[in-house]
Amino acid sequence: MLDADSIAVLGAGKIGSIIIRALSEKLDGVKVIATGRSYETLQNAAKLGAIAIRENRKAVLESDLIIISVKPFHFPQLLKETGFDVWVDKTVVSVMAGVTLSTLQKALEGAEVYRAMPNLNAYVGRSATAIAENGSGYRKNTVDALFKTLGTTYWVPEEYLDVWTGLAGSGPAFIAEIIDALAMGAVASGLNRELAYKAVLDVLEGTALLLRARSNIHPAQLRDEVATPSGTTIRGLTVLESRGVKAALMELVEQASRRSREIGTEVNERVVKELTFMLQQVEKNK
Ligand SMILES: NC(=O)C1=CN([C@@H]2O[C@H](COP(=O)(O)OP(=O)(O)OC[C@H]3O[C@@H](n4cnc5c(N)ncnc54)[C@H](OP(=O)(O)O)[C@@H]3O)[C@@H](O)[C@H]2O)C=CC1
Ligand SMILES: O=C(O)[C@@H]1CCC=N1
To answer: Whose CA is nearest to atom 11 of ligand 1?
Structure first.
């Protein structure tokens, strides 16, 4: 049950618009307000069922639950536009990569803050979303219900959020690259493109379902069941091993996770700078 009358989505871009669509379609009687910079973004948000406006401050003032979905480095500018006196008693969920609960708490004084990491599979209701809270958890059920409109939710300690970002947040892009590569290999071997992409998607979906259905087997067991001695699979696996593909994929997740942590540090510095400037302006105008 979602106990919110009005939800603001600040930054109706790629992930923001998927959230808007899910909220508009799946929640009855909830007003969704969306913000963006360009006319196109606002127009798109309106088409998805939101009240689309340019003013972030107004959107926050008129909502009790706010989702921040601008790029991490646009967060200081967003703060400048909202002012820091609008957040008291609001519930705020950031989906920005890297930006920590501590930075959010500092910037959004008086708000109850959550950090969530969904992914673009939310488009088909299959996001794997990790969520971390700052301790009070007063509106945990509401936040959970909100992200369940996008798929599955996992409540985790904040220390897992960057790794989650590197694995599941970025994951659709990594899997898409692998799909593309496998299909191109099939095309190189003579299969037509259309069939190649269909086959790869079928194999991917089927393998995920199989692994889930046989819940106690390790992926390596499935690999061994497929790889007949001296057969086709082991020939292919030999290439993966000799080219270090598994190690590369492990490093890919590590690097993506590391980047999330770096973004957190960089954004925190910029937010502190912006808040200091904003406070100076307030003092000056007294
Ligand atoms: N893309 C993904 O797969 C995922 C992204 N994320 C996180 O979500 C956030 C958004 O990413 P994504 O959707 O890809 O990025 P987009 O660039 O598609 O969306 C960001 C949106 O923010 C808007 N925006 C920027 N500045 C302001 C502002 N001052 N006021 C109002 N709106 C503003 C932009 O408006 P305009 O279009 O008009 O310029 C844009 O529509 C990022 O922090 C990212 O880390 C999290 C999970 C997955
Ligand atoms: O690439 C990014 O930074 C964002 C976060 C997760 C997916 N996209």
So the answer is: 71
